[in-house]
Design brief:
The model has no long low-confidence stretch (mean pLDDT 88). This protein has 12 helices and 12 strands. Helix content is 33%, strand content 22%.
Length: 329
């Protein structure tokens, strides 16, 4: 399948406030959110981006939607460089690429009725007002709010969390986009309603043929939604492969730790200690070589000297690791 989204050596650094000593020395500290990320997303694919908080997942999602500009590197959508989009071309891209926010309680303007919140993208896109009611009704049916008339004049505080997330999804779908980025779409919802929202997102993606990116720290969630998973650690992709294969046989030491941390239904089942140590380093002063080396139980001198590239491994994986065991069948 042809690539819809392409990223090449994308770097994003955020400058931070300098101390007096740094000012005098001329140092320019920055949070290195992304440090050379490259991958493609095929049209119609559903991929997951997983990792701990602070690994760069949300920044990467915002870059793909042109909500943030990269420090260096290139991002393309349908063959067009995002950096070159302006005017009508940028407006057309905004119609095709949409974001589902993490917190439905904060994603909607409390002063807008539900109808106005869902119709707002149509207004911004210059869609004729005569089409708004039909398009909003269609979006409501897609998210199983077919009795949407009873919600149109309500305000966000009058709806439950699950209903609000359906409204947020309807707002993202009202322009019939091609590309959807969902940032932790169920993390703020009660466990009792998560399954329904996940099933809905999978149904909508299949029905509309969407290309979708799901950002999460929950491997159990992405296994249900995505065929492919990218594992990130401190701004770099450390493993890339089929989701089921990554969950069943992770190859990078960090991915193994993520899989080991997934909760199990049986609280009495014995759990082995997590196979990593230490805490996440400061993103303003990252380790040389492999960013994960300070926490890796297999670290060797080479890990401090060389940055491991993403290399093909068995099972359709790509792994950024000097450990030979990561590449054995």
């Amino acid at each position: 399948m042809a690539a819809l989204v392409e990223l090449r050596d994308v770097v994003k650094h955020f400058p931070v406030t300098r101390s007096l000593g740094e000012i005098l020395s001329g140092a320019r500290p920055a949070v290195r959110a992304l440090d050379g990320v490259s991958f493609d997303i095929g049209a119609g694919d559903a991929i997951a981006i997983v990792g701990e908080s602070g690994c760069g997942k949300t920044t990467l999602g915002r870059l793909m939607l042109k909500l943030t500009e990269p420090t260096t590197g290139a991002i393309a959508f349908a063959g067009a460089a995002l950096a070159d989009l302006a005017g009508d071309r940028l407006r057309d891209f905004r119609r095709q690429a949409q974001l589902v926010f993490q917190n439905p309680f904060d994603a909607l303007n409390p002063r807008f009725t539900i109808y106005r919140a869902v119709a707002e993208p149509l207004l911004n896109a210059g869609i004729d007002k005569g089409e708004h009611a039909d398009r909003v009704a269609t979006a409501f049916r897609r998210v199983h709010l077919a009795d949407g008339d009873r919600y149109l004049d309500r305000y966000p505080h009058q709806l439950s969390g699950g209903q609000l997330q359906r409204v947020v999804l309807a707002r993202a779908l009202v322009l019939t986009p091609r590309f959807l980025v969902a940032d932790e779409p169920v993390s703020m919802l009660d466990v009792s309603v998560r399954a329904g929202i996940l099933a809905l997102m999978r149904e909508v993606r299949d029905a509309m043929g969407l290309t979708a990116v799901y950002i999460s720290h929950d491997l159990a969630l992405v296994r249900y939604l995505c065929e492919r998973t990218l594992v990130m650690y401190l701004g770099r992709i450390v493993e890339d492969g089929p989701t089921d294969a990554i969950v069943r046989r992770p190859r990078h030491p960090y991915t193994r730790a993520l899989v080991a941390a997934v909760p199990v239904p049986d609280a009495d089942q014995p759990r082995a200690p997590l196979p990593i140590k230490g805490s996440v380093p400061d993103a303003r002063a990252l380790p040389s070589g492999c960013h994960f080396r300070d926490r890796c139980p297999h670290a060797m001198s080479r890990c401090a000297e060389e940055t491991p590239p993403l290399r093909p491994a068995a099972g359709g994986h790509r792994v950024a690791c000097h450990l030979e065991g990561a590449f054995t069948p």
